[in-house]
Design goal:
Elements lengths: L2 H30 L6 H8 L3 H7 L11 H11 L13 H16 L7 H14 L5 H21 L6 H20 L1
């Protein structure tokens, strides 16, 4: 077996374990609520050790936002369909932000991620904590940075970057506020 095959198998097993954690946690969260579900409960339901849980998520609350990184990857991929740069004088950076946000908003209705089922629990968590859990803040900052980097790669005119970054931040903030409301 080649190193690529081992890496492929390892990655598939890792993804399968992560999926098992998400499925188990989603079921338990919907049955018991987040506060009524422990990491030990999730690990047992997923058929893994407690330590294995932490290889995939820093905290149980992060499972509620399991879809974030995949959504960001799909939004970045949507930029591939846009023209590079601002050759026609139009505000293509804003078009890039609109394309990214359209994908992110559409993905919140993806039934495979079960994001709609967990929306009330996410809103409850954020309301009870009087803000975002610290691990989620880090993940959202990383997501925004990845999106900004992708936009800058697609629209290399540095003059557009401040407005493009601000526009993206405002849109992401508005989407998050709407999701919680």
């Amino acid at each position: 077996m080649t190193a690529d095959e081992r890496g492929g198998i390892r990655e598939r097993k890792r993804a399968a374990t992560r999926d098992a954690v998400v499925i188990a946690a989603t079921r338990l969260f919907l049955e018991r609520g987040v506060s009524g579900t422990s990491i030990d409960d999730i690990a047992a339901a997923a058929g893994i050790a407690r330590r294995t849980f932490f290889l995939h998520f820093p905290a149980k609350e992060d499972v509620l936002f399991h879809h974030l990184e995949g959504h960001v990857r799909r939004a970045v991929a949507a930029l591939d369909d846009l023209p590079v740069g601002a050759s026609d004088g139009a505000d293509n950076g804003a078009a890039g932000v609109r394309a990214v946000m359209a994908v992110l908003v559409d993905l919140f209705e993806d039934p495979r991620a079960r994001t709609d089922e967990l929306a009330d629990l996410r809103a409850e968590l954020i309301t009870a904590a009087h803000g975002l859990p610290p691990s989620l803040v880090v993940r959202l900052q990383r997501a925004q940075s990845e999106l900004v980097d992708a936009l800058r790669g697609k629209f290399p005119d540095p003059a557009e970057w401040p407005l493009m970054s601000a526009h993206l931040g405002a849109c992401m903030g508005a989407a998050a506020a709407a999701a919680v409301a």
